[in-house]
Every structure is written in C-alpha cells, then in structure tokens.
Design goal:
The longest helix is centred in the middle third of the chain and has 29 residues, at 134-162. Strand 4 and strand 5 (59-64) form a beta hairpin. Helices cover 31% and strands 25% of the residues. The chain has 8 helices and 14 strands. The two termini are 29 Å apart. The strands form 5 sheets. It has a 3-stranded antiparallel sheet, covered by helices on one side. A 3-stranded antiparallel sheet has the order 10-2-11, with no helix packed on it. Strands 3-5-4 form a 3-stranded antiparallel sheet. It has helices at 21-26, 39-42, 87-90, 134-162, 191-195, 199-208, 210-220, 224-234, and strands at 5-6, 16-17, 31-34, 48-52, 59-64, 75-76, 79-80, 95-98, 106-110, 117-118, 123-124, 166-175, 180-189, 240-247. By secondary structure, the chain is an alpha+beta fold. It has one domain (5-247). InterPro entries: SapC (IPR010836). Pfam families: SapC (PF07277). This is SapC family protein.
Length: 254
C-alpha cells in the first residue's frame, strides 16, 4: 500500500503533473467527498448523502456521481463536465498529512508512485528556484482551509445525528433487460423528523447555518434524475427504466 510522503522542493524538484491527470483520476470516483461549506454548490449537480467512514466510523458527506463503481458520469471524453468541482478533486494529487518534523502540525503530502506524476512531461510542480507552481499554491491553500472545514463538517454531522435526522435509504434500479441493482449504505435527511422539530431547534439550526445545508441535501436528491439521464445516454444498450428510493427498514443509521 502506498504511503504519503512530505512534498519537498528539493527531493521532488523534477516532478511534473501530467496533462489531464485530474480528469483521469476523477473518472474513477463514484463517490466524491465533500465538506459542509460545499454542500450548497455541490447540490446544483449531484445527489448528496451521508455515509460512514469505514476506517473510523465517522460520518462523511459525499456526492454520488454514478450508479456504477469506479465510474463518474461527470467526466466526459476526458474532461470534467459539471458546474461545480468538489475540493477533494481540486487538490488532487496533493493531500494533507501530519508533519513528520513538527508535532501537531500539517504539511502537504503526495503518493510518489501516483500515475499523475512524471519527470518528463507535464506542468512543473516547482520552478527552477524551488517556488511552488500556481496549481500547487492553489491546492495548498485549499488543503489548509480544509482543516477548519473538516471541523465544521464534523460538528454538522454530529448535530444532525443528535437530532435524529439521519435516514438510511436504498436505491433500487431496474434495467431494460429485467435485471435489478440495489445501492445500499446511503443516508439522507429525514424530512418528516426535520419538520417535527421544535421551533427552538429549528432556530438553532438556522442560526448555526446548518439549516441551509440540510435543505440543500434534501433538494439534491432530485439530482438522481440527472444521474439517470447521464447513465442512459452512456449505456444505450441497457438503460435504467426505473429508479426507486426505499427507506431501509431493516437497518438504522448508526
């Protein structure tokens, strides 16, 4: 398994970012991680859901980009084709990591064997004086800002869970050939429970800014229709004829 290493303008001075590497990476991202400040913009394109982080069990906000694993319907002919691009894509192939030198500090890390990098062709990450490229500078700024955004997202998901507003659903797909597919493990906002909250709870959600994100997530479910259209345009031999959203009665969001 690859391990992140700290990016260095001396060790990695010859690294270049391959042309179109971002689109190639994005093309395989069925689930794209989001942070709560992104929810409003992301809802203009994607259906948004909660899911559990398999490593630590925490809630994750994410955008669904396809009904098929390792596929992203918003990458067309090698190009990103959506109004909004999640920050988790904008910062690729750079990541935030704990500094190996300074305790309780963060730095920029990379996977040295990533196919996004080359020493021969592409955009240089550093110039001849060791200064960061515009792309790297932008990614670095976004990653640094994401520290606070991750805290905001954690607080948002904790509050939504504490209010009992997380509902587990299944997506049931029916294809032209009669086969069916079930996508489980997705969670959304329970609109009925939201509407039944006491007035003081609604006021608190509004004052914290969370109510806007909650409503955006609810409205984003309609973007499943966009995914359905895009899927059928790409898979003309076996289109999806029906999409159902079912509450997962045998599972709870926990």
């Amino acid at each position: 398994m690859s391990t992140l290493v700290e990016l260095s303008n001396t060790v990695h001075k010859d690294l270049k970012l391959k042309e179109n590497s971002l689109a190639q990476f994005a093309a395989s991202q069925q689930i794209m991680r989001l942070r709560v400040p992104e929810v409003g913009k992301a809802a203009t394109n994607f259906p948004l859901f909660f899911s559990r982080n398999q490593q630590d069990g925490s809630w994750v906000l994410s955008a669904l980009s396809s009904f098929e694993p390792m596929q992203n319907l918003f990458v067309e002919e090698g190009h990103w084709n959506a109004i909004y691009q999640p920050i988790s894509l904008q910062t690729f192939p750079f990541y935030l990591m704990q500094s190996p030198k300074v305790e309780n500090s963060y730095t920029i890390g990379i996977l040295e064997n990533s196919e996004a990098f080359s020493t021969e062709t592409g955009e240089a990450i550093f110039d001849s004086a060791g200064r960061a490229s515009l792309y790297l500078t932008k990614a670095k700024n976004l990653l640094e800002a994401s520290i606070k955004q991750d805290i905001d997202t954690y607080r948002f998901t904790q509050e939504v869970e504490a209010l009992g507003l997380v509902k587990t659903i299944d997506l049931q797909l029916v294809f032209e050939d009669g086969n069916t597919q079930n996508i489980a493990g997705l969670c959304t906002i329970d609109e009925d429970k939201l509407q039944s909250l006491p007035a003081e709870k609604m006021t608190a959600l509004n004052d914290s800014g969370y109510l806007i994100a909650i409503h955006a997530m609810l409205l984003s479910i309609y973007q499943l229709n966009l995914l359905l259209r895009k899927h059928n345009e790409r898979n003309t031999q076996n289109k999806i004829t029906q999409l159902k959203i079912e509450v997962a009665k045998d599972r709870v969001a926990s």
